[in-house]
Amino acid sequence: MSNGRYRAYPAYKTTGATWLESVPESWDVFDGKRIFESCRETAHSTDEQLAASQKFGVVPQSLMMELNDAKVMLALKGTSTFRHVEKHDFVISLRSFEGGIEYSAYTGCVSPAYTVLRAIKPVVSGFYKYLFKSRPYISALQATTDSLRDGKAINYEQFGAIALLLPPLPEQTQIAKFLDHETAKIDRLIEKQEELIRLLKEKRQAVISHAVTKGLNPHAPLKDSGIEWLGQVPAHWAVKKFNHCATIRNGQVDPRIEPYRSMVLYAPNHIEKETGRVVYRETAHEQGADSGKYLCLRGEVIYSKIRPSLAKAAICAEEEALCSADMYPIKAENGLSDEFLLWFLLTPDFTATAVLDSERVAMPKINREKLGAYKIPVPPLDEQAAIVAYIEKMTASSDRLMAEAETAATLLQERRTALISAAVTGKIDVRSN
């Protein structure tokens, strides 16, 4: 980072620390236990229960529920064994070795499973908020936990043995202010890329929906489809029951025997949502498949029937393959093409209808009878081919733009990470910024 805009400090000294070779000459280096103590203060009766997460830091449980749009576990038997947390304390959570130590902007209490860190030297919490989340420091945490089982927390002794940097207080303040300002700018740029991706996805789905339900001729006369969620369709299109123009293959095979053992096995997690793309392939043997699967043939549509993955479908690319019992292999027929059927199954309106129907059964999925009873629009075959070609052209363009935006967001995130690491370890001098 010491190029162009940023310069290095005029002089450095060696640290003796395994994770950081040198620091600015004016900075001190101490073991973590000499800067932060393990605070075991009992929760106050008025304390609100807090939760720690890598994404949001230490926040009230109520806010965590709102941010995650989900329920979290409250202490039903009270918080008498919990630990008090002051604003500006830090918390070692169960997964700290993966994502760093969490900062608390709130006063409250946390589970005794967490370790509360409180400064015993004058520090600027904003500086350590960035240091504890920096890539070099997280690597140092991970180096202390090589022998720990997955899910086991870092203890205070391990934290305390890791060297910590202690710049002069004015520099801590300046570094924190600098990073607040610079990361906010980068975050705004990332948000713009993410918003662009969101809009492109919406446009992509709108293009697909309009093409497979209204066709490509904006002047074509329309008729009522008789389907509430579908509305009007071109007057010359047929509207057929699903099971009159498509066959849902039945009968399972044993993936542990040949030739099925060597076949590619499709599962919902192999298919990207809403795009029809297969993201990776494995054979039944490679996946360790040990229960019944469906046989599918080249060109057939493979459609996920389980609610969380209802917008996942793809065309089978192999002469013969298997699909998970959570998916249906479907052969379009009687004037319906497989490709047109694929894009129809991926429309938001059809997915929303399938989601509603899946919620009405004990197991959240679309059963064969329900899927077979749906009515779908069926244009003439030449028009289906034109619609599919148009969708593939338009989605290829939007996919390219989305990929460019995702690359830009990734590069910005990498720059953010590198800038934080460089600033909190003294690789760049930001005192004049």
Automatic annotation (TrEMBL):
Pfam families per UniProt: Methylase_S (PF01420)
Alphabetical keyword list: Coiled coil, DNA-binding, Restriction system
GO terms (BP aspect): DNA restriction-modification system
Type I restriction modification DNA specificity domain: residues covered: 24-192, 284-401
GO molecular function: DNA binding
Cross-referenced InterPro entries: Restrct_endonuc_typeI_TRD, Restrct_endonuc_typeI_TRD_sf, Type-I_RE_S_subunit
Coiled-coil regions, chain positions: 179-206
PANTHER family assigned to the protein according to its UniProt record, in alphabetical order: TYPE I RESTRICTION ENZYME ECOKI SPECIFICITY SUBUNIT (PTHR43140:SF1), TYPE-1 RESTRICTION ENZYME ECOKI SPECIFICITY PROTEIN (PTHR43140)
Membership in a protein family: Belongs to the type-I restriction system S methylase family.
Stated name of the protein: Type I restriction modification DNA specificity domain-containing protein
The species this protein was found in: Termitidicoccus mucosus
Lineage: Bacteria, Pseudomonadati, Verrucomicrobiota, Opitutia, Opitutales
